[in-house]
Design brief:
Layout (H helix, E strand, L loop, with lengths): L2 E3 L3 E3 L5 E6 L2 E7 L8 E6 L4 E3 L8 E7 L3 E6 L1 H5 L4 H14 L11 E3 L4 E4 L4 E4 L3 E13 L6 E3 L3 E5 L4 E13 H5 L4 H40 L5 H8 L5 H25 L17 H9 L2 E6 L12 E4 L6 E7 L2 E5 L6 E3 L11 E6 L9 H9 L3 H35 L2 H49 L11 H42 L1 H48 L1 H7 L2 H50 L5 H28 L3 H12 L18 E8 L9 E8 L4 E5 L6 H8 L7 E6 L2 E2 L5 H5 L2 E4 L8 E2 H6 L6 H10 L3 H6 L7 E2 L8 H13 L5 E5 L7 H13 L3 E5 L11 E6 L2 E6 L1 H6 L3 H10 L1
Parallel strand pairs: 9-11, 24-31, 24-32, 27-30, 30-31
Antiparallel strand pairs: 1-8, 2-7, 3-6, 3-8, 4-5, 4-7, 10-15, 11-15, 12-13, 12-14, 12-15, 16-21, 17-18, 18-19, 19-20, 22-23, 22-25, 25-26, 28-29, 32-33
Helix pairs in contact: 2-4, 9-10, 9-11, 9-15, 10-11, 11-12, 11-15, 11-16, 12-14, 12-15, 14-15, 20-22
């Protein structure tokens, strides 16, 4: 007879099983007397579920069933429960919830998988997890510990329940057998063994919860104690004081490595003007280079370089290197004439030379500063680039002033020689003054050479800083930025940084030098004749006015030419990428006809811009001639000065005109890069998708949730997704299917943070993705996109990416993707070259290579968007089986329904809404969209 529980609670007494007939029932662990206390949630049960009564725990608590209005529980005996045909499935929600209770740290990502019915032999200190959500693990020989806890061991002949969040670690090696729950319950002693195992599991869950509460209370006490003392401790030290991490061996080792590397990195960063942030020590970074972890935390970039030959003689940037004997990190700091090796561990400094080359490994890392994370202006970028260049700019300015002062000797001595000494025939003094002029020319030449050398160094520094910073900014921008922009136009804009830098750096120095020379000679003219000085000012004003008008017109024409160049580059890039398809279709002539008008328009625009520039060049030539004629006329008709003074004024006037023409031509050159700089404006003004106020995601467990998500690409456009809600538990396999254009790929873009929902939220481990550093989330996900691409290189680098993986680990990832046999058949193996576009690989090989890359880090979250569409059935089964062994949360978008038969749940999307949700058999039996899709594929 059923017992109705409108809003009541019932103690689940031992010796009985309880079957949920109607409604929902939540199971808690609490005091038997049902007094107000902190109840511990264990499981949520739906109709058809079974829960068994268990003895009191060590603390005297028992299971309590709490039901919503109208829920119905029916107590049944053990024998009745054993006679139910679906007993194992009915027990799964209760057992799964109980086993996952109290876990505070995620299970290991590196483990040996075991499935039901399998026997495995493991060595010492090996971690094992089940690929099934619930299994019985029997220790045939040896000894294992649950969750790596030496206090919770299972000896030979004993068994334990293993859920999706559980793992065991061998002590000295063991032989283990996995058994399905249904198989065990079919045996005579199966139910007795089950109750014994669940009783132990319940006590362990209670112990985990109490331990977590004790740790949290201890942390709160320590925080309060520090607050009371007003302690100001570094974040990392505070974290260490509050930490109770069980993985102390790894954490301490990793923290020591991080501290040593961080100390060397700080020395390098200080010279580079970079502020570093000490990263947290987590298992997430165990397979990542420590400098990469530091770079991620500090929001900068790091690049590896090879140190060849006498590298220390040409090393303008500070680097982090390693000692060859013990791989201890050191700072490689440039100095005049070489490099100093600074060891932060003992403070020693070694000067690099041929004799000390063997002390350093032939690899080092360079840091690159990132642009500020807010919206930037040209002034902000200029300040960013100018950092650390004060010394070079000062030297260039001082040498320019010195050259200008020396240059004044030319008109003065020329006037004295020609106006005074030549008429007097004083050859001795003329020779002496000529020697002075030669010495002045030599000094000016040496200063100019020094100035140019500094300029070259400055240009190299600016090129490295700006180009890297702009590229970093580009790849940090949100996905919406790239939606309406072509690759060709972006490439043109980014590569223009180098051209603009070269023009502006050289032109800036030339302009400064010309202005200094012009002003100095102008002052000299005014000294000898105010009237001629005023005439010179008029000539200069005319030149400036004409140059202003011409350059204003030039800017407009250059914008048109640049826009045409961008369009041409975009079209050329698209056609080059599609050459194979064009040839296959025999469409070469049509492609050329498509490209030619754009090319012609670009050439016309460029020609018009050059015509305007040539006009200014002609005017400048005429200005020199006209100004000289005016000088002679005014000197002869208006102003009467001595011959020597006139020669001085004439020579100075010539230098002023030369400076004016140089500045005019320089400005005309500078305006050609104005459109380039304007094209960069959207890049620097758009804020990156991750800012300093975003939180690091930490180590993700794999729980994903979408809550009432609505999204549209344009504010006025149609909704692509409408009210989408679903939850993926850690380790769950969810397939997303639907007709083309239903919003499946958009859903994945939202999950990856490429787009932001209009309403609703995307949650990872219960935290809104909007508040998290999406980079720290993506680095923990394995992703294969529908339009994913490979990099030019070899197979090994494409699989490993930027991770520090060994040859065996790369091969293991290839095996998971079913690519190991293909690699074995290639003469060069993992060293096989992957060309641009991976034209040497088949479609299936390309997909499997991307799958291997996604799985090499053994992530807890996998996103596949049509990742197996080019695979045959056998290879697809290999990939499916391999992804299952990862125990990762899998969200798979697929058109081919045979790839999702084993999914825990299938979500069917149509027109941006979830229209069906269930297992493969359930949806196939329903009259709906899924059955329609399946019928089309069968046909």
């Amino acid at each position: 007879m059923s017992t109705t529980l409108p809003t009541r609670s019932v103690v689940l007494t031992p010796g009985l099983f309880w079957r949920v007939e109607d409604g929902d029932v939540d199971v808690f662990l609490g005091p038997r007397e049902l007094v107000q206390d902190r109840l511990l949630p264990l499981a949520s049960l739906q109709p058809g579920s079974l829960v068994g009564g268990l003895p009191l725990t060590a603390s005297g608590r028992t299971q309590i069933g709490m039901a919503s209005l109208g829920a119905s529980l029916r107590p049944i005996s053990v024998s009745t429960a054993a006679g139910l045909p679906d007993a194992a499935a009915a027990l799964a929600p209760w057992l799964g919830g109980l086993l996952s209770t109290g876990h505070t740290k995620p299970p290991p990502r590196v483990f040996v998988p075991i499935r039901s019915g399998q026997i495995v032999t493991l060595g010492a200190e090996t971690t094992l997890r089940s690929t099934d959500k619930l299994t019985i693990l029997t220790v045939l020989s040896g000894r294992v510990s649950r969750h790596g806890d030496a206090r919770s061991t299972i000896d030979a002949g004993s068994a334990t329940l293993i859920g999706v969040d559980d793992w065991v670690t061998t002590v000295d090696g063991a032989v283990l057998e996995s058994q399905d729950l249904a198989v065990m319950l079919s045996e005579s002693a199966g139910w007795t063994l089950l109750l014994s195992l669940v009783t132990r599991a319940l006590n362990e869950a209670e112990g985990r919860v109490f331990a977590a509460r004790a740790i949290e209370e201890s942390r709160q006490e320590k925080r309060q104690h520090l607050d009371d003392r007003g302690a100001e401790l570094p974040d990392r030290l505070l974290a260490a004081l509050l930490s109770n991490d069980k993985d102390t061996d790894f954490a301490e080792k990793r923290r020591g490595e991080t501290d040593a590397t961080f100390a060397a990195a700080v020395l390098v960063a200080r010279v580079s003007g970079i502020e570093l942030v000490m990263p947290a020590v987590t298992t997430q970074s165990s397979r990542t280079d420590i400098l990469q972890v530091i770079a991620h935390a500090s929001r900068i970039r790091v690049r590896s370089v090879r140190l060849d030959g006498e590298w220390w003689k040409n090393s303008p940037e500070p680097m982090v290197g390693q000692l060859a004997d013990n791989h201890r990190p050191v700072a490689l700091i440039p100095r005049r004439g070489g490099v100093d090796v600074r060891d932060p561990s003992d403070g020693t400094i070694i000067r690099m030379s041929k004799a000390t080359t063997a002390l350093i490994t032939p690899r080092a890392e360079i840091f690159y500063r990132s642009l500020p994370e807010h919206s930037l202006t040209a002034k902000d970028v200029t300040k960013f680039a100018a950092r650390g260049t004060f010394g070079s700019l000062t030297w260039i300015t001082l040498t320019g002033v010195a050259v200008a002062i020396i240059g004044l000797l030319v008109p003065i001595l020329t006037g004295i020689i020609l106006g005074t000494l030549v008429p007097q025939g004083d050859s001795t003094l003329i020779a002496d003054l000529c020697l002075i002029l030669l010495a002045a020319a030599a000094a000016s030449g040496l200063l100019t050479v020094s100035q140019n050398l500094i300029l070259l160094r400055l240009q190299g520094h600016l090129d490295g800083v700006l180009q890297a910073a702009v590229w970093d900014r580009l790849i940090s921008l949100p996905g919406s930025f790239f939606r309406n922009r072509t690759v060709g136009s972006l490439v043109t804009s980014i590569l223009s940084v180098s051209a603009a830098r070269e023009v502006l750096a050289a032109s800036g120095v030339q302009t400064i030098f010309a202005v200094i020379v012009g002003l100095a000679n102008m002052a000299l003219i005014f000294y000898f004749s105010i009237a001629l000085g005023l005439m010179t000012l008029v000539v200069v004003a005319i030149a400036i006015a004409v140059a202003g008008v011409a350059n204003s017109s030039q800017v407009r024409r250059q914008r048109t030419a640049f826009s045409a160049s961008q369009e041409l580059n975009a079209k050329t890039y698209e056609l080059v990428r599609g050459v194979a398809k064009l040839r296959a279709a025999g469409a070469e002539d049509r492609a050329f006809a498509h490209w030619a008008p754009t090319f012609a328009a670009q050439r016309r625009a460029t020609f018009r811009a050059r015509v305007a520039q040539n006009g200014l060049t002609v005017f400048n030539a005429a200005l020199v001639l006209g100004g000289t004629i005016a000088l002679f006329l005014i000197s002869s008709q208006v102003v009467h000065i001595q011959t020597a003074a006139f020669l001085i004024v004439y020579t100075a006037f010539a230098q002023v005109l030369g400076a004016v023409v140089a500045v005019s031509n320089t400005v005309a050159t500078v305006v050609t890069v104005v459109p380039y700089l304007e094209s960069l404006s959207p890049v620097i003004r758009t804020e990156p998708e991750v800012s300093a106020d975003k939180l690091d995601a930490g180590e993700l467990v794999g729980e994903i949730e979408l809550n009432q998500v609505t999204f549209r690409y344009n504010p006025d456009g149609p909704a692509i997704l409408q009210g989408v809600t679903f939850h993926a538990a850690p380790g769950e396999f969810i397939a997303v299917v639907g007709p083309s254009g239903s919003g499946k790929s958009t859903l994945l873009r939202l999950l990856l943070g490429f787009e932001q929902p209009e309403t609703g939220s995307v949650l990872y481990d219960g935290r809104d993705l909007v508040t998290l550093d999406v980079g720290s989330v993506r680095r923990q996900c394995g992703v294969v996109l529908q339009d994913g691409a490979l990099f030019a290189g070899d197979l090994a680098s494409n699989i490993a990416g930027s991770g520090a993986y060994s040859h065996d680990e790369i091969l293991a990832a290839a095996h998971l993707a079913g690519l190991d046999e293909d690699i074995a058949s290639m003469p060069l193996g993992l060293s096989t070259i992957v060309s641009e576009g991976a034209a040497t690989l088949s479609g299936g090989q390309r997909q499997r290579l991307m799958i291997a890359r996604a799985m090499i880090s053994r992530p807890r979250i996998l996103f596949f968007d049509e990742a197996t569409s080019a695979l045959d059935n056998r290879t697809q089964e290999v990939v499916t089986r391999s992804t299952r062994t990862l125990n990762a949360t899998r969200i798979v978008i697929a058109h081919r329904l045979s790839t999702v038969k084993d999914a825990d749940r299938i979500i069917v999307i149509d027109a941006g809404r979830i229209v069906q949700n269930g297992t493969y058999p359930k949806l196939l039996a329903e009259d709906g969209m899924f059955r329609t899709l399946a019928a089309r594929q069968r046909a």
